[in-house]
Amino acid sequence: MKNILWRIAWILVGLALIGIGVFFISSPNANLVTLSVLIGIVMLINGIIDIVAYARYRKIMISPGWELAEGIITVIVALVILFNYWVAAAILPFIISVWVLFAGITRTVTSFDLRRVGISSWGWSLFLGIAEIVFAVLSFFNPFVTALTIGLLVGIFFIFQGVTAILKGIFSDKMVL
């Protein structure tokens, strides 16, 4: 029963992330403060779920340390955004770049673990991880363009995160990602 609840939670978080991603894409010129607060809330929820999943399933996880690290970093970044949203709005491109870079590295490392245990969809995880790393690096080197297109770029990233969360929900009967 608990496993079913976790699967449902991952799928619901994934759908919420995709929904917010679609919102950001459909309104890319939304106020940066509004974007900062929404991003902070979603990141906080996502990070807490990663940490709770680690605490409950670390013995059967493929990459538990990476999952915990991503959860902790996500919560820290979310709290920085939520408690300093005016400052966060000013440096949002950099904050997003750091988060996306770490998520991309985590996803890339985890994809090889997925391949090792025979999960056929490991290539998608690798593709998403590399795409996130490329996006983060481009954002670091061109923060002005990132600031102008933050809604679109954040929307795409949230959709990536949503797909990953849904896959965690779908495949959690075989493993905890």
From TrEMBL:
UniProt keyword annotations, A-Z: Membrane, Transmembrane, Transmembrane helix
Transmembrane segments: 7-26, 32-54, 66-85, 91-110, 122-141, 147-171
Domain of life (superkingdom): Bacteria
InterPro entries reported in the protein's UniProt record: Acid_resist_chaperone_HdeD, DUF308_memb
Any one GO cellular component localisation term in the record: plasma membrane
Classification via Pfam families: DUF308
Record's protein name: DUF308 domain-containing protein
